[in-house]
Amino acid sequence: MNIFRLTGDLSHLAAIIILLLKIWKTRSCAGISGKSQILFALVFTTRYLDLLTSFISFYNTIMKLIYIGCAYATVYLIYMKFKATYDGNHDSFRLEFLVVPVGGLACLVNHDFSFLEILWTFSIYLESVAILPQLFMISKTGEAETITTHYLFFLGLYRALYLFNWIWRFYFEGFFDMIAIVAGVVQTILYCDFFYLYVTKVLKGKKLSLPA
Amino acid sequence: ETLKKDKDEL
Q: Which InterPro entries does the annotation name (chain A) (predicted)?
């Protein structure tokens, strides 16, 4: 464990909690892409099956359970409890355009053609594009609630911090995982446009609105 | 050991 991975995990946890609280407190999931949340639930489910097979540490186990629990709670709030506030018309990204190519790639490019490894690889690739429906929805509505931009900021920051974690681990432990690194770079690049808008607008107290 | 090591990230 190093400071980048710890702050990265805490940033990820903050994002997940911010989103859950936003929906619960405002009793509304307006502006939130349910499809992205489904993808995140799928990412955690396929990545954390090793909860059933190996114990790494209490921290590892507890964080995985929190991530999976919050992901499914968020999907439940969006599609069941506050379904009336779900903006399905603007959440129109075709999930099959992500899941199918990612599934194919995971079968072609992986470290080991075993069940758990293929699922882990699938989850790594899927996570790198899972935010696309959310970013697509914001580009369609042309705006985002400020609390939603904070959610996206911490979510994007977490994988950026993981990039530093991988530099750290390569330098100090000689450890690196090319699949996770490449997917992590792609994932972070997808946020660059949002990061620019977040720093230049939201941090200056303005509302995040895209030129329609 | 390496397997456990390289899957210790969330």
A: ER_ret_rcpt
